[in-house]
Design a protein that fits this description.
single chain; mainly alpha; 193 residues
Length: 193
């Protein structure tokens, strides 16, 4: 369904589980950044009433996920660490088209968001299927479903609001780029690392 070119090696879940405090901290900040991204899209594209409505719900949900991860961190006796730099997201941002028309930049920002949600969904599936902690595996299953919905929301808005972008062609370019990019990741206790 996601169209990702390369799936995560299930052994990545072992890396994540070996340092839960780190993966949970990284995950918390990913949720906060996802909420910020949704808010930014709203701010820059407020003329689209349905987008404002849907992305407001996503921003709230992402902050709820942030709170849930914080609660797990506290419950496990860990401490929320400082925000982590996400090199994967940085590389995706560099791939985003910023020149061209306003619509092209808008559509690429939606595809950027869809790509992150797709990979997060896939990583949460790996955690769901491989974590020994059953409660945490269930938590990641619920988030996997949520991320899949976010992915389709962003992709559907890109298709709806395109003026001068062949969204299916550009999405294929995103998938190809991400397929090459992700080969360098999967060996750290980071959601995208």
């Amino acid at each position: 369904m996601l169209g990702l070119k390369l799936l995560t090696d299930p052994r990545w879940a072992n890396i994540a589980e070996s340092n839960l405090e780190e993966i949970l901290t990284d995950h918390a900040w990913c949720e906060q950044k996802a909420a910020s991204n949704a808010i930014s899209l709203i701010t820059q594209n407020s003329e689209y009433e349905d987008l404002v409505h849907e992305l407001t719900a996503i921003a709230i949900e992402e902050m709820e996920h942030f709170r849930m991860v914080i609660d797990i961190i506290k419950e496990k006796g860990y401490t929320l660490g400082r925000e982590r730099k996400d090199d994967y997201v940085g590389q995706l941002m560099k791939f985003s088209k910023k020149d061209g028309s306003r619509n092209q930049a808008f559509i690429d920002r939606l595809l950027f968001a869809a790509m992150i949600e797709a990979r997060s969904c896939e990583r949460f599936r790996v955690l769901t299927q491989n974590l020994k902690d059953e409660a945490l595996a269930k938590f990641y299953y619920d988030l996997m479903v949520s991320e899949a919905n976010h992915y389709t929301t962003f992709l559907n808005f890109a298709r709806k609001y395109t003026i001068d972008v062949d969204v299916d062609k550009r999405w294929k370019e995103w998938l190809d780029f991400e397929g090459r990019l992700i080969q360098s990741y999967g060996n750290k206790e980071h959601i995208h690392g």
